[in-house]
Amino acid sequence: MRIGITGALALAAMMVTGMAGAQETIVEKKVFELPSFTTQSGRTLKQVRVGWESYGTLNADKSNAVLICHFFSGNSHAAGKYDAADAAPGYWDAIIGPGKAIDTNTYFVIASDTLVNLNTGDPKTTTTGPASIDPDTGKPYGLDFPIVGVRDFVEVQKALVESLGIKKLALVAGPSMGSLQTFEWAASHPEMVAKAMPVIGAAEADAILIGWLDVWAAPILADANWNNGDYYGKAPPLAGLAKALTAVTLHANHQDWANATFGRRPAKESENPGKTLTDKFQVQSVLDNAGMARAKLSDANHFLYLVKANQLFTTGGTSLADGMAKIRAPMLYITQPKDLVFTPDAVERTLKAAKDAGRDITHVTIDGVRGHLDGVISMKQAEGAIRAFLEK
Amino acid sequence: MRIGITGALALAAMMVTGMAGAQETIVEKKVFELPSFTTQSGRTLKQVRVGWESYGTLNADKSNAVLICHFFSGNSHAAGKYDAADAAPGYWDAIIGPGKAIDTNTYFVIASDTLVNLNTGDPKTTTTGPASIDPDTGKPYGLDFPIVGVRDFVEVQKALVESLGIKKLALVAGPSMGSLQTFEWAASHPEMVAKAMPVIGAAEADAILIGWLDVWAAPILADANWNNGDYYGKAPPLAGLAKALTAVTLHANHQDWANATFGRRPAKESENPGKTLTDKFQVQSVLDNAGMARAKLSDANHFLYLVKANQLFTTGGTSLADGMAKIRAPMLYITQPKDLVFTPDAVERTLKAAKDAGRDITHVTIDGVRGHLDGVISMKQAEGAIRAFLEK
User: Fold this and answer.
1) pLDDT tens column, A38-51
2) Which of these is catalytic: B76, B372, B374, B378?
């Protein structure tokens, strides 16, 4: 399949490439509920629920647990399949499984949905956010849901991990927004994180990323159906959300892929993109169709809350230097030099801050034509580095 | 002024930096009207009008004319001031004027507004597009206006140039979308172009650029007030257009500028961007304010028609190789390696196509922290290369 975006979950579908034939782990989705959770901003929420999965077996002294944190548009399906007939396994299946880099014969791997997860319409995702029913009112929170940050995601995961009796994680890892959670875990709970593996991310959202995240969100804010977040039970801002997801997909890829895959072909053989405003090139129709398919399973307010959580992010909550000073875990930092979201200069600033703070950080790069997305779909390249890091 | 975006015309205002003290040319805006103009798509329009300016004096044999083509959000104000008290001169004033690289003591420099120019609300811009009154109906064209391409922009300019009795241009030049017009001029009227100077552009819109242009346009399409282009006499899609212009400004800049200028400062000293969805960082508020200020003077349909014209662009109209084969003019190609819009690999493809076709092309790069925008505001760096190119 040359284009690589056809399914409802564009990123998931894009992952199919190069992942056939691996031994399959059958996994089940579980739900973790916290009767009460107080956010960093001081708001107490009742019945906070997130979905989670696990691969492998927790050992007797509960010392072999690994936590995987998901990316912006992802969920806790990091590895395996729900059913052998599933079109694709979880997103990091190339490095998580029996005999793989994060070997489930050795490790008990946990992956959880974040708060305000995007995929509210996906039956395999459980999250709590603006689209959830507020138990106090019986209605969706909408914008009454408090602003949450990456630290809040981490605190919910910490409660999940502790509910399993785990006191220390052998590894915390994740791509993109998952890397922000990884840095945050290492800084806010250094005693619980033995090793950390942030992938295709940075330890802080810089001004340009804050700006780009606004570009992603813009079509939602411009969609009158968004209605200041008050659209539950009415027509949701589907057109705006679809365009927002289109922007995410384009940004998460690289020109090498887009140009080689689509060139200047029209959407349909017989179609002239110059005929009317709505006639398209193939790159436009593929991205728009993928965006719309995803939008139908996603929530616009959750998108905006995720944007905010990413914009607010600095490791440790105050400054990059303070955050790095708190970290104790050795880090394996994996990036892609063609990443257009977390650019090489953001990576350099993270590395410099880590080194200035005296941190033990190993930097490895992967390559490919997908840019940012290679940190999700091309991780097999880092297999050797991950094994070495876990063994040392 | 550290931030550099305050005026109504964000890009114009951004240009102020580093341009003080030059000798000022006072210019006047003129209007060129074509009673009838037939587009490449075969539609005949009546009373097509565009604004234009000139600097210097046309010589007796009319051999000293230079044509400057403007960028996406620009207009024909390429140099000089309308009034000595103007805050800023035209966008390429650093290289156009008496004694400057394009020396108006030697050359007669013409700059014209394109068709479907964005700045319909600016009294110094004259253009014809969807917002114009169709003389046949007495109403704005709206989406009944035909799709136009860069070749159409060129043909209107050609009529303007010929109306002045000019048979050959000593130079055609322009930044960004102006470079597309420059390539197109050289390919479609090789006998009329002695030299060509495309700046911060490429000879073809590739798939990634087509995709990004859609990201720019997305907030307009998501804005219900856009109403399929039918909003004249009603509330225009101002929110969507403002967000679209914000995306253009961000993309036209580089992270080096955004990060150094804004960092992670909140919009206001006392404001916490984490308090609510609408509390902002400074980078967000400055870009949003600039976008909204520009939107009030711009037209959303014109924005969409410009996006389409850029997406459709291949030099010569068929393929990069065919286009390059038609060019005769020596070219001075000026680019910025940090350009995020026309990326280094697009520049490389243009260079390769030019060389494969045996073209005489000299490639020069400029630098700076603005990326794409350096081709508008930092052109003094190329002064020596431009002089040498014009003298050879």
Assistant:
1) 999 999 999 999 99
2) B372
Please report, for chain A, the start and end positions of each structural domain, with discontinuous segments joined by +: 12-206+314-391
Q: What φ, ψ does residue A69 adopt, rounded to 5°?
A: -110, 140
Give the number of other Cβ atoms within 10 Å of residue A362's Cβ: 14
- Domain A12-206+314-391: give its CATH architecture: 3-Layer(aba) Sandwich (3.40)
Mean pLDDT, chain B, rounded, equals 94
Q: How far is CA A114 from the centre of its chain?
A: 9
Q: For residue A280, what is the enclosing H or E element?
A: none
- Could you confirm whether A270 is annotated as catalytic? no
- The bridge status of strand B44-55 relative to strand B30-38 is antiparallel
CA angle (A312, A174, A194) in 5-degree steps: 100
Contacts of A254 in chain B (CB under 8 A): 208
Interface probe, candidates B221, B322, B349, chain A, greatest A C-beta count within 10 A:
B221
Q: Determine whether B339 is an active site residue.
A: yes
Q: What is the pLDDT of residues A182-203, one digit of tens each?
A: 999 999 999 999 999 999 999 9
CA-CA distance, B245 to B232, in Å (whole number)?
Answer: 20
| Pairing of β A102-103 and β A30-38 | unpaired
Please indicate whether residue B144 is annotated as part of the active site.
Answer: no
pLDDT beyond 80 at B20: no
Which one from B176, B179, B298, B378 is the annotated catalytic residue?
A: B176
Residue B23 pLDDT? 57
Domain B10-205+314-391, architecture per CATH: 3-Layer(aba) Sandwich (3.40)
B346 Cβ contact partners less than 8 Å away, ≥ 6 residues apart: A255, B202, B204, B206, B209
- Of A147, A218, A264, nearest to B276 by CB-CB distance is A147
Task: Inform me whether the pLDDT recorded for B389 exceeds 80.
Answer: yes
State ipTM: 0.93
